[in-house]
Amino acid sequence: MMQATSSAASGLDAQQQRLDVIAANIANVNTVGYKSARADFKDALYSHMKDPVGDAEANNLRQGSGVIVNATNRDYSDGARQDTGAQLDFSITGSGFFTLQNSNGERVYTRNGNFSISVEGGKNYLTSSDGAYVLSDQGTKIELPSTGAVSVDPSGTLTAGGQNVGKLAVMTFDNPQGLSAVGDSTYAETVASGTAYAAPDAQVYQGSLEASNVDLGQELTLMMRTQRLFSLTSTALRTSDEMDGLANSLK
Fold this sequence. Notes:
Layout: H1 2-27, E1 37-43, E2 47-48, E3 62-63, E4 67-74, E5 81-83, E6 90-93, E7 97-101, E8 107-110, E9 116-120, E10 123-127, E11 133-134, E12 143-144, E13 150-152, E14 157-160, E15 163-167, E16 170-172, E17 180-181, E18 186-188, E19 197-198, E20 203-206, E21 208-210, H2 216-250
Antiparallel strand pairs: 1-4, 2-3, 5-21, 6-20, 7-8, 7-11, 7-16, 8-18, 9-10, 10-12, 13-14, 14-15, 16-19, 17-18
């Protein structure tokens, strides 16, 4: 009986984690550059039942131990490109992320190209919406002249006031699923993701932003399915608890 209770409890925990992931997707449906996530499951460890006859697997005499979340994976496919007409709004098509330097001096990566200008010590720097420095392909902060229109070509090369001011560092990874989320649409490199390198197929567009790739209809459908599974698992847990109580009363 204890095994049934444990298996049902693991199911409740797994479905709660899935609901949390879905809720985060729905909450970020309008977040620029956000990539939707999915909770993937796997069976917990199996064990042979007591004194199986012959081959336990062949005779289906294996007892499961419930379900657990195997990983939370992200869909890095492109979101829709939305025209804004703003001079410092940039979007990427293809693989790749803009490279930022945050307030801790760490490099992080994002698809959110909603940039602005930060004035420090009489110099103008290109920054993200949360104040992180946008880095060039040389790993340096991008300084803009005080006057002159800013433009970018598909390769990410910036010109301002008639002069070349650098090229945006648009990087990718061998295993983007290994990136660590450090914000709604910002990620950090890990051992699992591999080292960042220049994205070969990325193109940069000015005057537009990449919308979230969350499919709201799909998320709502998945939420309803998950709520039903949560309800069924709750019933299984309650039934197991009642059977345990009945067994104890018979002792």
